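Let's practice the habit of predicting before peeking. Look at the sequence and jot down your guess about where helices and strands might fall. Then scroll down.
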Amino acid sequence: MSTSKDMVPCFVGAHQPHHGLSLKDSGERTIHQPVRFTSKAILAELPAMPAEGITKTPPEAVASNSSDLGVETPPPSCPDIFDSGSPATAKGQTACAKALEGVGGSGSKKGQLPLAVTPVRTLKRKISSISPSGIATNKGVAEHDPANHEIKRLREEKGLKWEQIAEVLNKRLIEQGKSPAFTHNGVYSRYTRNAPRIAALEAWPSGQDEMLIRAYHEVRAEMAEELWHRVSDKIVQAGGERTSPGACAVRYNSL
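Done guessing? Here is the structure:
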């Protein structure tokens, strides 16, 4: 083990607390440099430091050095449109549907529109927005993307290969002045992820979706009205005075 006589100071950066050596720079200002001690045997194996000091290695040199050492330099990351969800707002989904107007097709083998632009979706958003007890809906799920419906239709109804589907979609995007962004891998990935979910949504009978949405909000309204009637009854059961359900609601919110 090296003794203290074999140890020499080694500078480790000026951002640490300034305990260590005090040096003079060219302007005769005192610079406090923190130090740690390193074995002379280790320092002897290092290349000599240039007279002007340590220089910062440019990024391109780091990349080449990494390849020389057999270390793969990861490529720059870029967003993958196939992993991104559809627009998260109704306005964004409408814009998306218009942008892919030529891509949308019939939306499914049943001749239905993609759910992103159906009257059912519009009804659900409208009721949720005007109802105080409405629930925010998930407008960005992949099964509501018109492009995913078109991929499913071209694969199952037309029997096209993945390369052919990508070519069809890219051709339509180019005709609309858009950049071709579909690849056979991306089309395949979209299909495997979203086709089962789209099929599950298509299993409902015609008109059942409208019934579901209306029934849900009607029941919530009935439950909200019944809630304060039951609260009023509970007050009487506890020995209090009879109070109207509306007065109970107002009083509760003011507490």
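How did you do? The CA atoms of residues 128 and 134 lie 4 Å apart.
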